């Protein structure tokens, strides 16, 4: 793994293709004619070229086949700590052996290896060699190898990742000249996707138009790439992503989830929220489910545009249709509703999410609503929601819970605060020192000294009182509060 990581991280300098070895050298397995060790950086220093001769002699027969060479490259050389860097040199050396001929298996292996180890120049050289030396299954050049197109697709994607768009286009042109008939739409898609990721939107449009002139029918992936490219670039070329969507349906391509998600994202980025919501509704009408990412994107777009009430309406509509994505907690929307004091709408939404999922929508979401209800003076509603969370074995965090206990004690309801604390503890809540102190102080302030002392004893059992001195100080404080109340 360390060797593979080194191959992936670092790029080697291309070594010029040496002349093929003479037949006599091939017969006695002379080392490949390499002037120096490859410059590809590895965790270990590559062995000297002379060490390759013994390795080949030990693992290859004089009359080796393409399957023998593939086994050597894949199973032996690839895992050798000091000879792995010679993979391309062994491939080149085999070209000069009179009794040997590369086929699509060795071509595909070396092309993929060069692609994943970030050697684009060598990859381009191998592709050109593959065109001039067809695979044996191609019938001596009469037909193209069935694996030719998949090899080129992988290579084109790698060249785009290496930021070599010109080489990728040249490789695609070679593919067009070499394949029987016309390349598949998937080959155009690979090139378009790579160019789109590089931000070359004009080239993407050119490739799309070339598909039409080549009479290759675009598929749903083609349109998804085009729409995504237009959404990123802002359009141009006489198109926009809405027109592309219409053209997609006119050509009989059914949009999928990726299409809708891309469209919705494009509309929201341009502030066209109504159209984004319309696309989401059409998505549901066609039987597609809204993904959690799309749902969050819609709600975030409405909230950031200040249309919080409409976002709430959308959530309730999705709840009624049973289309709200699983795992959606609507935290941002609940916080926005609480900020504008639409607490009833926020509570209705949390209740709907709870009913649909059969569990609380999220501890943070519920805690935000509890805190908003408490701070607005609706303590009874906050207590009801907290009790419901406790029953569902999802108690709130200590900060939210302690704030609610403080509100109860401040309203002369310390006994209710103690009952809530005990219920929460049974439901899995982990009280902290402040939890006990708030309830004990509240009970003592109402003249309930014995109950307050019982809370201090529970605090002692929980390990929050380190020594007898701290215990006595707490008890003295309770006595003073009780006397103050009595006085």
Automatic annotation (TrEMBL):
Coiled coil: none annotated. It comes from the Eukaryota. PPR repeats lie at residues 184-218, 219-255, 256-290, 291-325, 397-431, 432-466. Keywords: Repeat. Pfam families: PPR_2. Belongs to the PPR family. P subfamily. This is Uncharacterized protein. It comes from Spirodela intermedia (Intermediate duckweed).
